[in-house]
Amino acid sequence: MSGRSWVVVLMVLMVLSLMEVRSAGPYEPTWESIDARPLPEWFDQAKFGIFIHWGVFSVPSFGSEWFWWYWQKQQLQPYVDFMRSNYPPGFTYQDFAPQFTAEFFDAKEWVDIFASSGAKYIVMTTKHHEGFTLWGSKTSWNWNAVDVGPKRDLVAEVVDALRAKGGLRLGLYHSLFEWFNPLYLKDAAGGYNTSYFPAAKTLPELYDLVARYRPEVLWSDGDGDAPDSYWNSTGFLAWLYNDSPVRDTVVTNDRWGLGTICNHGGYYTCADRYLPGQLPARKWENCMTIDRKSWGYRRNAQLKDFLTIEQLITTLVQTVALGGNLLMNVGPTHEGVIPPIFQERLGQVGGWLAVNGEAIYHTTPWRAQNDSLTPHVWYTYGPQKKAVYAILLDWPDSGAVVLGEPLALGSGATQVELLGYGPLPWRSREPSGVSVQLPPLTINQMPCQWAWALRLTGVA
């Protein structure tokens, strides 16, 4: 395409991004209308997804996926020292891109790992704040995985493997802004009174991702402190909900401009690693990391930096009991390998869900989210079996657990079962609650190792 043609295209895109065009569909480009869209049922039923942070930051793999920003912008000493000790003078962040090789990347292997975890959807980073795209974005000239590094469309490979496998829904993460993009910096310097960057970069990429890959989660991030009007977020979302090829199934989050987080969008994330203390009024997601300190892979991580399986199961149970979904992050290496510790944790979660999945999937919050008498007991409700699930994070030393919240309807109507084992004896307590006798099992007889779910039917 000639330079003149590109100018025409960019001018048209900029005009569209600045216009609040009335949508032909039922959703208008206003937050009042966008927020009124019902959330597709599949998302609330899924409960558990996998986040994947992968990019050029996986090459230095030091400190954080914000490596470039901390090294160049904030001049944090550990990052400066790391570069001074390991790379020659004049080495730039762009010089890392050819080393982003992905030579061991096997999308089918990745999808098998994700499927074995029990996850129902994934969210893959297509572009982080560094601006490098993992697909051949035509607006990311020579700064994408097709032109530099692996010379492959990494997003397409994951999408194809995912859909060939079945059982997992596709989500794509995309950063609205880019730290050092000259067009963004120009707009920011002018107080966002111009929209050169969203017209030339952000909006074309968003439309391209939806048209090419048809994601069912579009996970927006990185507003750069710019308002949603600068990004034309409501205009884009109106198109996404009315006219896009995924308009009936797509789910979006709440990161569409300054002030939108925890206020607008399809569901709320509110903050990284968000876990509210009480049941929120709107559907939400806890996006969190197995590595406590980073979303991307870190070569300098220590074992103590990784959450244990007990901590991960606890987070999953609490999140679902409070009506949320858990989005658990892994960071692959620049070669395209999911490190063994991530594989182990995901496999352990999958083994736990194989026993206790009915207490997680397709459930809703119960009237009580946790028990009033016994700590570390969380509840969910399964409409399909009309069952209340009491999930015990600790196995009691006494051999019995007292549940203060359930109200038994009677010995003939009420049943208690340990998932993966079978029926258990119980008795009513006054004025409410039940005491459940747990079986004397050896470690090898346990249905699972970390948390145990009781199915209670016939309770008020």
List the helices and strands and how they pair.
Elements lengths: L2 H16 L12 H5 L5 H6 L1 E5 L14 H7 L3 H10 L20 H10 L4 E7 L26 H12 L3 E7 L6 H8 L6 H18 L3 E5 L6 H4 L1 H10 L8 E2 L31 E6 L19 H13 L2 E7 L9 H17 L20 E6 L4 E6 L7 E4 L11 E4 L3 E2 L2 E3 L5 E4 L14 E6 L3
Parallel strand pairs: 1-2, 1-7, 2-3, 3-4, 4-5, 6-7
Antiparallel strand pairs: 8-9, 9-15, 10-14, 11-12, 11-15, 13-14
Helix pairs in contact: 1-9, 4-5, 6-7, 6-13, 8-9
3D structure, described in words:
This protein is an alpha/beta fold and about 450 residues long. It has 2 domains: about 5-360, Alpha-Beta Barrel (TIM Barrel), CATH 3.20.20.80; about 375-455, Sandwich (Immunoglobulin-like), CATH 2.60.40. Helix content is about 30%, strand content about 15%. The strands form 3 sheets. Strands 5-4-3-2-1-7-6 form a 7-stranded parallel sheet. A 5-stranded antiparallel sheet has the order 8-9-15-11-12. A hairpin with a 4-residue loop joins β8 (about 375-380) and β9. α1 packs across α9 (about 195-215), α4 crosses α5 (about 75-85) and α6 crosses α7. The longest helix has 18 residues, at about 195-215. It is globular and about 75 Å long. The termini are far apart. The model is unreliable at about 1-25 (pLDDT under 50).
Overall average residue pLDDT? 94
CATH uppermost class of the largest domain: Alpha Beta
Distance between the termini: 68 Å
Number of strands: 15
Tally of distinct domains: 2
Spatial strand arrangement across the major sheet? 5-4-3-2-1-7-6
Most strands sheet: 7 strands, parallel
Overall 3D form: globular
The helix count comes to: 13
Q: Write the H/E string, N to C.
A: HHHEHHHEHEHHEHHEEHEHEEEEEEEE
Low-pLDDT runs of 5+ residues are: 1-24
* Alpha-carbon Rg, integer: 24 Å
CATH superfamily of the largest domain: Glycosidases
CATH architecture of the largest domain: Alpha-Beta Barrel
What is the CATH T-level topology of the largest domain? TIM Barrel
Domain Alpha-L-fucosidase C-terminal: 369-457
Pfam family, one: Fucosidase_C
Protein name: Alpha-L-fucosidase
Domain Glycoside hydrolase family 29 N-terminal: 20-358
